[in-house]
C-alpha cells in the first residue's frame, strides 16, 4: 500500500475521475456527481493506492479557527473514504496516520472532523466535542453563501496535536463547515 499527498490543484483529470467514483460510491446520493468536493475544495488530499488502484482518500483543509476568542491552528479531515471491498484492512487508519504526521510536522493544534461512523475515529484517538459551532452557510447546489449558522453540530470530533487544550464553548470556523 502506498500513499501520495497531492495539492488539489495538481490533480489530473484521470485521478479526479477515480476520486469522484470513490466519493460517489462511498457517500451515495449525498455527494454531488459533478465534482470532487462537497461545499469547498480541500487544500490537499492523501490518496491510498493498492498497486495502481485508488482504494482510499481523505481531504485536508488548514485554517485558523476561533475557540472562545483564542486562535487555534486546525487541520480539517474531510471525506475520508475507502472502497467497500477494501474496508477492514487498515487503509482508513493509514490515511489518518498520514494526516496526523502532517499536522505534527507543521505544529498544528488540532485535527477536526465530522463523523458519520465515530468508531473509526475513536480507534484512532479522536474524541467527541459538543461545542456551539459558528460557520459560513453555503447552498450546496448553487454554491452561494446564504448566511451564518450557529448551533451544536452532531458528529464533531477532535484530536489534540499540540499543547493547547480543547475547551467547551463557541468554535468559530471562520469559514465553511466541513
From TrEMBL:
* Gene3D superfamilies reported for this sequence: 3.40.630.30
Asked whether the keyword Transferase is assigned, the reply is yes
What EC number(s) does its UniProt record assign?
2.3.1.-
Q: Does the keyword Lyase apply?
A: no
One Pfam family, please name it. Answer: Acetyltransf_9
Question: InterPro entries from the xrefs?
Answer: Acyl_CoA_acyltransferase, GNAT_dom
Q: What is the top-level taxon of the source organism? A: Bacteria
Which keywords are on file for this protein?
Acyltransferase, Transferase
SUPFAM superfamilies found in the cross-reference section: Acyl-CoA N-acyltransferases (Nat)
One GO molecular-function annotation for this sequence? acyltransferase activity
Ranges for the N-acetyltransferase domain? 4-162
Provide the protein name.
GNAT family N-acetyltransferase
The species this protein was found in: Tumebacillus lipolyticus
Amino acid at each position: 500500500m502506498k500513499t501520495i499527498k497531492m495539492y488539489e490543484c495538481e490533480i489530473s483529470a484521470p485521478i479526479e475521475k477515480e476520486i469522484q467514483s470513490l466519493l460517489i460510491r462511498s457517500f451515495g446520493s449525498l455527494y454531488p456527481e459533478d465534482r470532487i468536493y462537497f461545499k469547498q475544495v480541500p487544500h490537499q488530499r492523501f490518496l491510498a493506492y493498492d498497486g495502481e488502484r485508488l482504494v482510499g482518500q481523505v481531504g485536508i483543509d488548514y485554517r485558523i479557527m476561533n475557540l472562545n476568542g483564542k486562535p487555534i491552528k486546525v487541520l480539517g479531515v474531510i471525506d475520508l473514504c475507502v472502497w467497500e471491498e477494501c474496508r477492514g484492512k487498515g487503509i482508513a487508519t493509514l490515511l489518518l496516520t498520514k494526516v496526523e504526521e502532517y499536522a505534527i510536522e507543521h505544529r498544528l493544534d488540532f485535527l477536526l472532523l465530522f463523523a458519520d461512523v465515530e468508531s473509526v475515529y475513536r480507534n484512532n484517538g479522536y474524541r467527541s466535542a459538543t461545542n456551539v459551532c459558528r460557520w459560513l452557510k453555503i447552498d450546496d447546489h448553487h454554491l452561494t453563501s446564504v448566511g451564518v449558522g450557529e448551533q451544536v453540530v452532531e458528529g464533531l470530533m477532535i484530536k489534540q496535536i499540540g499543547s493547547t487544550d480543547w475547551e467547551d464553548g463557541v468554535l468559530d470556523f471562520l469559514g465553511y463547515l466541513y
